[in-house]
Amino acid sequence: MTPEPVFAWKQCLIIRSDVKMSCGKKCAQLAHAAVIAYEKADKITKKKWYDEGMKKVALKATSQRQLYELKTIAEEAGISAAIITDAGMTEIPPGTVTALGLGPAKSEDLDKITGDLSLL
Fold this sequence. Notes:
Organism: Methanoplanus endosymbiosus
CATH class: Alpha Beta
Structural class: alpha+beta
CATH topology: Bit1
Family: Belongs to the PTH2 family.
Largest sheet: 5 strands, mixed
Protein name: Peptidyl-tRNA hydrolase
Low-confidence stretches: none
Keywords: Hydrolase
GO cellular component, one term: cytosol
Distance between the termini: 30 Å
Mean pLDDT: 96
Strand content: 25-35%
Radius of gyration: 14 Å
CATH architecture: 3-Layer(aba) Sandwich
């Protein structure tokens, strides 16, 4: 029997559940969050996360305020964070805050911040 992989590193991608978006729109916003948060991480963290398989978790937040609170907590913990604001070219008004990317970072550190959020 193959042992379960252990992921010491991950990225948390958080979408607002109070903004009406199609599934495709949500995916695009989370992809933006993933790329920008990754770019803000340090080189060593990026490599460790990449080498381990780039685990990502998609989660839901209930409001814009919650996204900003999570971002602040993450940044205070030294975790890269990226708030995504939509350009408004398709489904939602310009300037709408849609998503937050956190990490990559240690899974245990992200769990302390996002552990109460529901999976998308």
